[in-house]
Specification:
alpha+beta; Rossmann fold; 24% strand; globular
């Protein structure tokens, strides 16, 4: 039996698959794409039906030669790249680079990296799906045309190094529009009235909110109106008008898609979209789990489908029945409806083996892998469980012509909530109510009028931006994370706490794009273009027709913009740091490796220096200042200003307060359950001091 070559994208994936296939198979990694459009030129022949010019990616020549040599020794070649259009395109490029027959059945596809999935895929190779390849080519060519035709205009008129993107420009406009809504927002004062009532003097009190006067909703605009109403309420008695008891069925959420995974990981784990996808990739490609060997723990993580296989459904049902009993399994297995524009090419994101629980795998995973796997495992298992049954009580209370409302809920049967909890805004407002009877008189404990102001729309977080992009059909699962990363890298937006805020540069670029390239930043146009590109994938449209339909009118706009866009000057931010060489105030410049200080007297004075950020703590070794620094991978750490004479470093922020228990040094840490806290660095002490009402880092 001759040797067979299997080509995948990554070394981690190659390692996992290699263990399943045995000695007759050689598994090599292409390290992603091996061919692409050239960076130094457009690489698209516009006059020749948009024919792309592909070249070997710089640095991949040696790797490609190695794969070619291995291919010559093997009887069979299997292309096992990811099961999506990007993966299909990589396989197609490999097929062409290896001069293989395009009709040969060499493409194998699997949606989870497990022994059975790989062995079954090897038995059923297929031809390259040229429709998938063309769908990727269409997107690649469109993005190249937008980027390489519009970006030079931004370089000339604004600043070198900027970029415009077919999808990123829409996302930027959304963030800019929201920021301008916030800037224009005028707060409006309003008041609410809350009454603290008791069933009798010995019972716990509960809050009710004023909701109506007569049959009309109450609107209180100022303190005078609030005080007047409170005065009238003080004269009357509180009586129970109506008590309504019911049961509410709360259904579990569907298993994760790419979008919902990114949103939940951001909200619950504080993971950026980029971080989430990186960790999910590791879980998909394979982890060495004690007792199971190397195994892909989750199915393919780029998907917009909530569909799951019957085998997975049955395995989950068996596990849950054994662990919790038959009451926790619905009589009819659940099926979730996907979104209207979902491609449904892959299953939802789920564990490949439900018996590998997060806790059983914990010692084999990094902390981040464990947290994300736990989130995926619990969400999937909960999706296959019985509904939660809530006892809901709604109460109407009257005082003269004023009406008050309160509602409360308690769990009658926890169902899926045993594993995965979520709550709606309505449920968060629920309170614990005593047993109340109609016409019962209630004792007043207190009445309070509260001043409020209407709030502007919230800035986008990464989670809410992903959700909005998906709802509007902008981009696809694989693009959400790169869109946000690109906008941050270009400094069009910046993070402020946990939100995304537009920079001055972002506004300038968006204004140019909105004025001169309206189709590109139009949400409906972009969503429709996504649908047309999907039709290429389905074999319904010729990809070059779609590109021409988009680019022909765009070329007219480009020619006009080149003539009409005015030069924009962005002033550098002046600091109070004085240049020691010439005495000028230094300014902040943006460079390839981040921000730095530079003398505005360039080229006469070429002085530059890094931006130094100090914290309010001293070095525990030498008493020097503590500086905030960044590792090569961008991770924040803390080091002494006297380096290299002093080698103190810490991943956690040192604080000036000493440990009350032993006098040792304290550092600032964060716990999801309890928020910020200080911990002693003394190994024999480890005293922890928790802070009240701290914000999440």
């Amino acid at each position: 039996m001759g040797q067979k070559l299997v080509i995948v994208e990554s070394p981690a994936k190659a390692k996992t698959i290699g263990k399943y296939l045995g000695k007759n198979y050689l598994v090599e990694a292409s390290m992603g794409h091996v061919r692409d459009l050239p960076k130094s030129q457009l690489g698209v022949d516009i006059d020749n039906n948009y024919k792309p010019k592909y070249i070997t990616i710089r640095g991949k020549g040696e790797l490609l030669e190695k794969i070619k040599k291995e291919a010559k020794k093997c009887d069979e070649i299997y292309l096992a790249t990811d099961p999506d259009r990007e993966g299909e395109a990589i396989s197609w490029h490999l097929l062409n680079a290896l001069k293989m027959d395009e009709t040969k059945k060499c493409r194998i596809e699997f949606h989870e990296i497990t022994k059975n999935a790989i062995k079954n895929a090897i038995k059923e190779p297929r031809e390259i799906n040229i429709d998938l390849v063309n769908a990727q080519q269409a997107r690649r060519v469109l993005d190249r045309l937008v980027g390489y035709e519009i970006s030079p205009i931004l370089w000339k008129k604004v600043k070198w190094g900027l970029s415009a993107g077919r999808v990123q420009s829409v996302a930027l406009k959304m963030i800019c529009d929201r920021e301008r809504e916030i800037e224009k927002f005028i707060p409006k004062e309003y008041w609410t009235i809350e009454c603290n009532l008791r069933k009798d003097k010995n019972k716990t009190s509960f809050l009710v909110k004023l909701s109506s006067k007569g049959n009309k909703k109450v609107e209180i605009n100022n303190k005078e109106e609030s005080d007047f109403i409170i005065g009238e309420i003080e004269k009357g008695q509180f009586k129970v008008k109506n008590v309504k008891k019911s049961q509410k069925t709360k259904n579990p959420l569907p298993p994760f898609t790419t979008s919902t995974l990114q949103q939940d990981a951001y909200k619950k784990l504080n993971f950026s979209t980029k971080r989430t996808m990186s960790i999910a990739q590791q879980l998909y490609e394979g982890v060495d789990v004690k007792g199971h060997g190397t195994i892909g723990l989750i199915t393919y993580m780029r998907t917009d489908s909530v569909r799951i296989s019957k085998d997975a459904q049955e395995a989950a049902g068996k596990f849950l029945t054994e662990k919790y009993g038959e009451n926790y399994i619905p009589k009819v297995p659940r099926e979730f409806k996907g979104k209207k524009n979902a491609q449904d090419a892959h299953e939802a994101i789920r564990p490949t083996n439900v018996d590998i629980t997060p806790d059983s795998a914990k010692n084999s995973l990094t902390d981040e892998q464990y947290k994300l796997y736990s989130l995926i495992w619990k969400r999937f298992m909960a999706s296959q469980m019985s509904s939660c049954i809530l006892n809901v009580t709604s109460v109407e209370i009257v005082n003269g012509e004023y009406g008050f409302k309160a509602s409360g809920s308690s769990i009658d049967f926890d169902g899926f909530m045993k594993l995965y909890e979520y709550s709606t805004d309505e449920e968060k407002e629920g309170i614990k109510l005593p047993q109340l009877e109609i016409d019962e008189t209630l004792a007043k404990k207190s009445i309070e009028g509260k001043q409020h102001f209407t709030q502007p729309p919230a800035r986008f977080s990464e989670a809410s931006l992903v959700k909005t992009l998906e709802e509007n059909g902008i981009g696809r699962p694989s693009t959400y994370s790169p869109i946000i990363s690109t906008l941050l890298e270009r400094k069009y937006i910046e993070r402020e706490k946990k939100t995304l805020k537009t920079t001055e540069l972002g506004f300038i670029v968006n204004d140019i794009m909105s004025e001169y390239f309206k189709p590109i930043v139009d949400m409906e146009f972009t969503a429709e273009m996504e649908n047309k590109l999907d039709s290429v994938e389905e074999g319904k449209e010729e990809w070059t027709n779609i590109v021409d339909e988009f680019f022909s009118p765009l070329k007219v706009l480009i020619d006009k913009a080149e003539k009409e866009v005015a030069k924009v000057t962005i002033e550098d931010k002046v600091t109070d740091v004085i240049c020691e060489k010439c005495g000028r105030n230094m300014v902040i410049k943006h460079g390839r490796f981040g921000d730095f200080l530079a003398c505005p007297g360039y080229p006469e004075c070429k002085n530059t220096k890094p931006i130094v950020e100090e914290i309010d703590a001293k070095c525990p070794k030498c008493g020097g200042n503590i500086l905030v620094k960044r590792s090569r991978k961008g991770r924040k750490f803390y080091g002494c200003s006297n380096y290299p004479d002093c080698n103190f470093v810490s991943w956690f922020e040192p604080v000036k307060d000493k440990c009350e228990a032993c006098g040792g040094n304290m550092v600032k840490k964060y716990s999801k359950a309890k928020g910020n806290y200080f911990e002693c660095t003394n190994e024999n002490c480890k005293n922890k001091v928790y802070q009240q009402n701290t914000e999440e880092q």
